[in-house]
């Protein structure tokens, strides 16, 4: 258990360093922050609470009271996901060498 906690703390520190680096793009920064929050939740909350929260969210997300907010969240997540530009990829034939321009 202590070894798992040590690994989570190290992961949290590494993600914090990457987040503060400033050399990555905005979408990557958002994913890093999301991973930081998830790591902190796993570090601080007991497993049974996380399971309880997950089940409550799963079974109440389609209730009439939460239906609109769930649809809005899914729409915003989809819009954000498709707003990330696609990185162009160039396929090289075997043995072909490309000059990398920076």
How would you explain this protein's 3D organization?
The chain is an all-alpha fold. Helix content is about 70%, strand content about 0%. Helix 1 runs antiparallel to helix 2 (about 25-45). It has helices at about 1-20, 25-45, 45-60, 65-85. The protein folds into two domains: about 1-45; about 45-80, no CATH class. The N and C termini lie far apart (about 45 Å).
The coarse overall form would be flat
Say how many strands there are: 0
Strand content: under 5%
Class of secondary structure makeup: mainly alpha
The main sheet comes to: none
Order of SSEs, N→C?
Answer: HHHH
Mean pLDDT, all residues: 79
Kindly summarize this structure in a few lines.
With 102 residues, the protein is mainly α.
Question: How does the SSE layout of this entry go?
Answer:
Layout: H1 2-21, H2 26-44, H3 47-60, H4 64-83
Structural descriptors:
flat, single chain, 2 domains, mainly alpha, 102 residues, 4 helices
């Amino acid at each position: 258990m202590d070894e798992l906690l040590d690994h989570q703390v190290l992961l949290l520190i590494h993600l914090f360093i990457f987040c503060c680096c400033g050399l990555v793009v905005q979408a990557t920064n958002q994913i890093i922050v999301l991973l930081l929050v998830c790591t902190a939740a796993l570090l601080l909350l007991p497993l049974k609470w996380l399971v309880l929260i997950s089940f409550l969210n799963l079974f109440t997300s389609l209730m009439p009271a939460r239906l609109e907010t769930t649809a809005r969240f899914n729409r915003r997540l989809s819009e954000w996901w498709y707003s990330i530009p696609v990185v162009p990829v160039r396929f090289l034939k075997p043995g072909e060498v490309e000059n990398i321009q920076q």
